[in-house]
Amino acid sequence: MADFLTLIPPAQARELLLSRVQSAQSEKTELVEIADSIGRICAEDLSAPHPLPQFPRSTVDGYAVKAKDSFGASESTPAYINLIAEVPMGSRPHHSLGSGEASGIHTGGMIPDGCDAVVMLENAQLSRENEIEVYRSVAPGENIISVGEDVFQGQLVLRRGKLIRPSEIGGLAALGITELRVARKIKVGIISTGDEVVPIDADIQLGQVRDVNSHTLAGLVNSSGAVSVLYGIIPDNFDDILVTARRALTECDVVLITAGSSASSRDKTANVINRLGEPGVLVHGINTRPGKPTILGLCEGKAVIGLPGNPVSALVNGILFVVPLIEKLSGKLSSTPRPSIRATLTVNLSSQAGREDWQPVKLIPEEMGWMADPVFGKSNLIFSLSFSDGLICIRPEETGLSAGEIVDVFLF
Amino acid sequence: MADFLTLIPPAQARELLLSRVQSAQSEKTELVEIADSIGRICAEDLSAPHPLPQFPRSTVDGYAVKAKDSFGASESTPAYINLIAEVPMGSRPHHSLGSGEASGIHTGGMIPDGCDAVVMLENAQLSRENEIEVYRSVAPGENIISVGEDVFQGQLVLRRGKLIRPSEIGGLAALGITELRVARKIKVGIISTGDEVVPIDADIQLGQVRDVNSHTLAGLVNSSGAVSVLYGIIPDNFDDILVTARRALTECDVVLITAGSSASSRDKTANVINRLGEPGVLVHGINTRPGKPTILGLCEGKAVIGLPGNPVSALVNGILFVVPLIEKLSGKLSSTPRPSIRATLTVNLSSQAGREDWQPVKLIPEEMGWMADPVFGKSNLIFSLSFSDGLICIRPEETGLSAGEIVDVFLF
Predict the structure, then answer these.
(1) How many contacts (CB atoms, under 8 Å) link A and B?
(2) CA–CA min distance A279, chain B (Å)
(3) Can you tell me the distance from the alpha carbon of B345 to that of B351, in angstroms, rounded to the nearest whole number?
């Protein structure tokens, strides 16, 4: 039985794996309509084909004027300007304004030639037919968005690696870009192992447990923008696992193997990863709880991760290692941190120095704000996660957290 | 031209609408396989059909024993126990232990009858064939998960209104529950209006702009767990808008109408909502920026929201009003707050007292942590959102924020 001689800090373990995989897979891209691009990773640098706006627009309802015609105007000494036209919405105004001339205009309307400012409706009124009196002077450019003020022609508007949100879709729509290249979805093969594990719809016998891990990991993978491929439950036999892992490695970008629960079964996973391809196991044993037995491997350029059979460990380590891997392989620019909720810890929590602990907590609303209440339970109680709202981290340099401390709760 | 005589605080406006819509729609449910339930809202209370685990399991690799046989054992005076069997993984052990007898067992194995504790492998060794010496005593129940320790039979394991995450799927899988009832997806009809607005793939003329709002709002709706239905672009004509809005109200659970940009066009939207059904407009004018002209309406029990034509306003107000509405209609329990990222504001920001401002910011990593750098721009520059990572809120009771203040950045 192998011991964990050298437990590696989780951040270092993750970096060891992520630095060895190339987002080569992200070279494989697909063209999608912008409506289908939400949540995908942009796979090309996109520039504005034309300036935005393409014509000078009014930002208010009012009167397009030459600014100088309004200079000195006030409530007591209004400026009188001839109202010669009205800008139609949605088309180019066919009139050009001369000195002392104004045109009615709506928000978003195109500024007529000869105008350089817009007087707001509330700062003017009709003095007689075809004449307005203006009570407030406007500066040149006032209440106008000029050509290219949003983006100029050729400006980089969407960078390769950017996550597509509704705002990115809006930007592309404004520029008439109706489709774009995104990274194709990373395929993650999932193999469950263990003689005691049976399919979730099987008749269960005493001594058997249902296959939780295939389904939690598939859920995690699918909700992280990748595609899961289930390879079923393989008995705890080296050759059988190797054959299935080989097939998964050929067909997928990443392979996850959840080991049986025993130490020997975990060693089997490590041996399978070593036989799958070079260099094999990179990290075996991570200084974290849950998840100490997690194995990070690299086989012929593809990541193969051995997760503990314990469903809580498997899911928490999936969050810690598989999700960042999917993001790296998709070419995602990792520019923003993970958001969290600040809450007050309800009880003391102890932790071993040097180890990073991830503790499930429930959020409880109190008058003073949110409380983070740890959900305890042996680490293989799947409902300790289901009954929690998120996880808090006790960092390696800490030996615990005190009741009343402010903690960051990461929803999962 | 109507003025905004009574601007309502956004929280109050939201509450006015949400308190008037019933999640009656959530009565309409659908049965889905657990694999397809991620991100959906559970529509039934689910109880455990059997205890979990269903049999007592070992949490370690070692030897199942009667605890009392180990009492007093130490390195210098080990206890000697007969090793009579090995528990097979995945089936019920067919032996029962008598006094002075032990059985080999793996993590997850079923505890044989007659045993009440497990000695860890590292606290014992084979002394001779069929005998172990135990160096450490174990207490009754030690290293065992007992029947029902995760959940007991009949325990409520998933509550109506709960968002389904991978951990919920794991819990259901463990219990052999392969499908469940979820709230069917809320249908949100989207109508764009304005004479100047053209489809995103149309040849564009000076004076025209492409239909940004249909696409940003559809993206927002779809990524919030609902389904968008686009009703296209309707010219700025009362009767045409009313006809289309009537159709949308019949076919959808919620109707969004983005007004043209001018004040008269926004008034038209309010009139349409008043004609659509009782009671019509609930709120016209919200004390927020962007989004002052947002209209919240209720027509024959369905929410109809008039959003400003300005794409930034439309999207930000979609986040503030449409997303919570979708959650309410889906029956989602609103138990957790929205997570955020804490960052240091780079510059002073001023705001009008009484008004709630939502300011787009970019997150910039610095040695000390994250900086929140406001992305300025006239409010109708769509790329001010696309170039931002999130929004910060200046609350009504504040007249601004100072450079150096810690702010919560909400990603969008």
Answers:
(1) 314
(2) 30
(3) 15
Tell me, which fold does domain B341-411 have in CATH? Answer: Beta-clip (2.40.340)
- pTM comes to 0.94
Confidence at A27, pLDDT banded by 50, 70, 90 = low
Contacts of B377 in chain A (CB under 8 A): 149-150
Q: Across the interface, do B170 and A315 touch by the CB < 8 Å criterion? A: yes
DSSP B244-281: HHHHHHHH-SEEEEE--SSHHHHHHHHHHHHHHSSEEE
How far is CA A77 from its chain centroid?
57
Q: What is the location of CATH 2.40.340.10 in chain B?
A: 341-411
Among A92, A200, A383, the residue with its CB nearest the CB of B178 is: A200
Contact residues on chain B for A338, CB-CB shorter than 8 A: 341
SS3 label, residue B340:
strand
Domain A57-145 CATH assignment equals 3.30.70.360: no
Name which of B39, B59, B261 is nearest A106 (Cβ-Cβ).
B261
Which chain B residues are closer than 8 Å to A112 by Cβ? none
* Helix, strand or coil, per DSSP, at residue B169: helix
The CATH code of the domain at A10-27+185-329 is: 3.40.980.10
Indicate the pLDDT class of residue B260, thresholds 50, 70 and 90: confident
Which CATH number is associated with domain A29-52+155-183? 3.90.105.10
CATH superfamily, with its number, for domain B30-50+156-183:
Molybdopterin biosynthesis moea protein, domain 2 (3.90.105.10)
- pLDDT above 70 (res B357): yes
Identify the band that residue A2 occupies on the pLDDT scale cut at 50, 70 and 90.
Answer: very low
